[in-house]
Amino acid sequence: MLSVYSPPHLREDGERLAAKHPELSGYLFATSGTTGSPKWILHRREGLDICAETVNTHFHCTASDTWGLALPEFHVGGFCLTHRARQAGGQLARFEQKWDATSFSLWVRENKVTITSLVPTQVFDLVKEKQTAPPKLRLALIGGEHLNNTLHAKAIALGWPLVTSYGMTETAGLIAASKVGDTHLRPLPGWVLAKGQEGQLTIAGPGLFAGYLAESGLTETEIPFSTKDLVDFKDGLLEVRGRCDDQIKIRGELVDLHNLRAGLAELIPSRRTTVIALPEERCGYQLFPVIEGPQAFDQEISHWNNQLPAFSRCQSAVFLTDWPKTPLGKIDFRALTEQISRRQDYLLRKATSRD
């Protein structure tokens, strides 16, 4: 029998898929990353147990710890935190109110939480509200997406014991992590990480997922599993340089969206930012900086943009108050791209009608 873990809007699809495959057992997770259509990922119980034990051993988690859940349990990050707590025999506290940085910080103090998992959006909010870390908290595992260095440094200055991590639904959470306070990713014991021929990360290990499940059946995992993340290894450390699908060509030149987004985030650390690429007939793509909140930073953005190679320079920045987000709080790049595309279509039609 399959246990289904998915956002509410995909729950019915997951239950229907599970019912169609009564011969399978395990845990079925929905994932779409940040861009694609949902995929259904099957994990076996024994693999999840190994992943939980590996993390607990690495971070010396014991029955004396209290885990604080502030992520949806249908997401692999939330599920894995609860599973680690069960494996270690520790206490589990659930932050069940609507996310608010001040309320969360107070809740962590009141519940004497020692370990929690957060995404960068939540770290951003904690820093913005200048919340200092509760004294009992010894680990704040950060995953879901990249945490920029400026935000990391500000959170550390407020006392938050951040551990940056790397993982995905296919690996049941983190497979590489930093030490508290730094950002250098070290592979966890039991995982074999390597650089493939095209520069992408390949993964092998007993905690790897069993396969992708579809109506037609289970596509079993090929080992080693090849990801879309581009990586380097130096002195035993893992460096994630972006994704294969972050590499686009403009006027025949290769442009790395990951680097552009990182540069913009460092330029404006006080706001959420990103860079969106829209298809364009002549050049291949047009690039749009997107910044949360009202219009500002015009001079800084212009200077940053002018320092870029000509082929990778951006169009006028787009300022948005309401960002589309996934249930985990990550930027929903597909929805955001569609929103920016509709905006540009409207502006083009408006300009054409005036002509």
UniProtKB/TrEMBL annotation:
Domain AMP-dependent synthetase/ligase: 27-213
InterPro entries: AMP-bd_C_sf, AMP-dep_synth/lig_dom, ANL_N_sf, ATP-dep_AMP-bd_enzyme
Protein name as it appears in the record: AMP-dependent synthetase/ligase domain-containing protein
Lineage: Bacteria, Pseudomonadati, Verrucomicrobiota, Verrucomicrobiia, Verrucomicrobiales
